Amino acid sequence: MSREETLDLLKRVADGIAMMFGSNCETVIHDIEKETSSIVYITNGHVTEREVGDSLSILGKKELAEVYKGVDLVNKKGIAKNNHFIKGSTFHAKGDGYHFALGINYDYTNMLMVHNVVSELINVGDSMDIAAVSNDENLEHKLEELFSEAIEYIGKPVAFMRKNDRVEMIKYLNEKGAFSIHKGIPTIAEKMNISRYTIYNYLREIKE
Fold first, then answer.
1. What digits encode the pLDDT tens for the residues 29-51?
2. Nearest 10 degrees: CA dihedral of 138, 141, 146, 147?
3. Hey, which end of the chain has fewer CB within 10 Å, N or C?
4. At a CB cut-off of 8 Å and minimum separation 6, what does 70 contact?
5. Per CATH, the architecture of 3-110 is what?
6. pTM over 0.70
7. Where are the domains of the chain?
């Protein structure tokens, strides 16, 4: 393609990307042969506070050197003049008598703030499933719940379980904290029609 055809194609790609990803996405076309005023086309220039005639200004020295060598850059971190966080990629288009680079720069500062807020909101300590249970009635109800969940997990009634099914069920109940509940072992033993010593043996097998 000629210089004009290449530039026209890059402009259409730049417009499409900016429209697709919104106002936080800057797309910019550089004429690499114009070192101090490389920008020949830009959309959403507010992202990096640049305009046509400005230079490659958000990259470090190492990245700048790579760009001038024609090396594509993908998903690199940059800092804008307003100290916003930018993630950017640069792709080259070279031909006879021209060297353009299409830059895509996305301001993810707001997303980072949302990420931090969400991280705080979903940060939890230890499970309070057991701690929240306070009296005998609640303890019994909790064990009933865990036992029903375990039956569902194994996928068959106790009467049809083989030894490996029973061991797997004990493992499940142990992981859910059923045996940390007062009288958990004798209650589960009764429901499974096995002795408490069998449960202890299964627990030993699981640990081994």
1. 999 988 788 999 999 999 999 99
2. 140
3. C
4. 32, 92, 94, 99
5. 2-Layer Sandwich (3.30)
6. no
7. 3-110, 136-207
